[in-house]
Amino acid sequence: MKTIINLIATFFIMAPCFSQLSSIPPKTQLPDDKNWKLVWSDEFNGKVLDTTKWGFRQHIMQTRHETWTDDAYEIDGEGNLLLKAYEKNGEYYTSQLQTGSNFMDRPGDPYGKSKLTWPIANLETSKFLHKYGYYEIRCKLPTQEGWWVAFWLQSPTIGASLDPLASGVEIDIMENFKRDGTIRQNIHWNGYGKNHEHEGSGDIKLGLNDNAFHTYGVDWSPTGYVFYIDGKETWRVAGPVSHQEQFILVSAECNGYRNGAASSILKEAKLPDYFVVDYIRVYDEINY
């Protein structure tokens, strides 16, 4: 009888622990062909954005983008970053978070009117730069049409030369433009003008518009990039491979503003709408 009583007591003592374990989010779904160690992360705990890790992108091609703001986000107190699209006085706003900066972030000549410059000496000090490794986001896609979201890497010197190995490559780990759950994964190099080149996965349709969390990652190594969704390989490309440290961006943008005005479809959207991010993590490969 004493044994039974002890077992019952143990169960009630451990029950809260079981409850806590069940609420822990799934572990990162790391590629299983390598050994990894965590080197950087943001779990978005608390209720305040960690500004030692993140800044805001508010320019595009050295020109101020008036609808990229520093207030279109929330930290919900439950371990999530909520990037949002919202309307105010007929305009639509989003935020773009980044751990570094490049020529886009410095005021300069209007886009398309003269040669872009790379004011490297005047760039803000990066909060996090990294080369190679596995980069992953766990997130839930928006529900309303008219805006798009992305998780990507960019170099402080991208496009400064026509050698992408030296100047860097844009690595789009996930881009979501439509509410049908379609994802695209891409790389871009040689800047964003007449020498621009890119390669991409095309549309990846895995039913990811299910209002559930999914993981998106890339294994960036000296031999290429391997992209993943929910731990399964979705695309790989041999290069060109950036050999430069790059920074992280998690971003949102309303359709139409690059052409001068917001897309009319935003008028039909139920705003605010949210891109919910559980975590962003970076791992290095452990070489034995």
UniProtKB/TrEMBL annotation:
Residues 32-288 form the GH16 domain. One of its GO terms (biological process) is carbohydrate metabolic process. Residues 1-22 form the signal peptide. The keyword Signal applies. The keyword Signal applies. GO terms for molecular function: hydrolase activity, hydrolyzing O-glycosyl compounds. Keywords: Signal. It comes from the Bacteria. PANTHER family: GLYCOSIDE HYDROLASE FAMILY 16 PROTEIN, GLYCOSYL HYDROLASE-RELATED. Belongs to the glycosyl hydrolase 16 family. This is Beta-glucanase, GH16 family. It comes from Kriegella aquimaris.
